[in-house]
Amino acid sequence: MMKVVAITGKERAEIREVPRPEAMAGEVLIKIDTCLLCTWEQRMFGGDSSTTLPFVPGHEASGTIEEIPEGTVTSFKVGDKVVFKTLDHCGHCSYCYQGHTNQCTGTAKKRSYGGMAGSGGLAEYITLDISKVFPVSADLDPVCAAFAEPLACCVHSMGRVELHLGDTVAVIGAGIMGQLHALLARLRGARVIVVEPDKTRRELALSLGAHLGVDPSASDPVEQVLRLTDGEGVEAVFSTVTKSSVAASAVSMLRKMGTLVLYGSFHPNEPIPTDPNAVHYKEYVITGSYSPSTVDFFRATRLLSAKLIDPMPFISEIFPMEKAQEAFTASLRPDTYRVGIRIDSHIRR
């Protein structure tokens, strides 16, 4: 048996005991160490999700290989530190075949925990096909390793733009995803402008390497960005704020032939007015970014293992598993970045 954290109702997270999964041929059994709480889990906990409850959530997680059954051919060894994709893809639809696993249209394997559906990051153990498991360096802190999934999402977003050395980008929003975008843009040789009304978040971005900060509450952010770019605008805007009105104004920050990436889902989902002639004459590119593909996940693990990205400034608090209710409640506070739950300390050895 093992324990899991299940969301059982609005603002209710409970620990339940369920059968421990058995790894089949082609899979490994992973002992989970740490799981971070994403906005998806927060919406579920807050009652703003259509997900059927009870549900065992969690997808930003790290752990170690616990067991490799006969029939699994792999270079992994028991004890290896790993991260993993819990949001599955089928592997054989037209998108998966082309490497766009984040756009899978097939039927992926579903997991069940004592009759409860779940992604499974908030369980003591998980079984996964080895194609969804990624190694990380042995000296990488498990909390840092758990950032592989959100970092992979941002790696995918960065890949939607063709950036060149010396380009200027604007990152709208300095929450966790905005901060990661800013770090990645700097790594790619861009000058980074962070647009964020919260002074503390804006200053954190600047302390971590962003070049310029814009306070949109002080004056028109579009005018500020244009002033900082001699009236030309930026090569790319990454809008990480889930408000349609903010995304609409972001287009006006672009220079000719610039790219706007709409990162994240919108709640509420409201239309964004667009000037089609501006798109036509200025050759704007407006695109989205949804979840990481397999290669994005791999690149994120290399960035973390090589210490090219340090996510520790974005850890607000780590709770033990038995305080999952407190962890979820804390994750809803606007002054937090990532709140995590340490699973490993609860495992009976």
TrEMBL record:
Pfam families: ADH_N, ADH_zinc_N. Residues 25-136 form the Alcohol dehydrogenase-like N-terminal domain. GO terms for molecular function: oxidoreductase activity. Keywords: Oxidoreductase. It comes from the Bacteria. Residues 178-305 form the Alcohol dehydrogenase-like C-terminal domain. InterPro entries: ADH-like_C, ADH-like_N, GroES-like_sf, NAD(P)-bd_dom_sf, Zn_alcohol_dh. This is Alcohol dehydrogenase zinc-binding domain protein. It comes from Sediminispirochaeta smaragdinae (strain DSM 11293 / JCM 15392 / SEBR 4228).
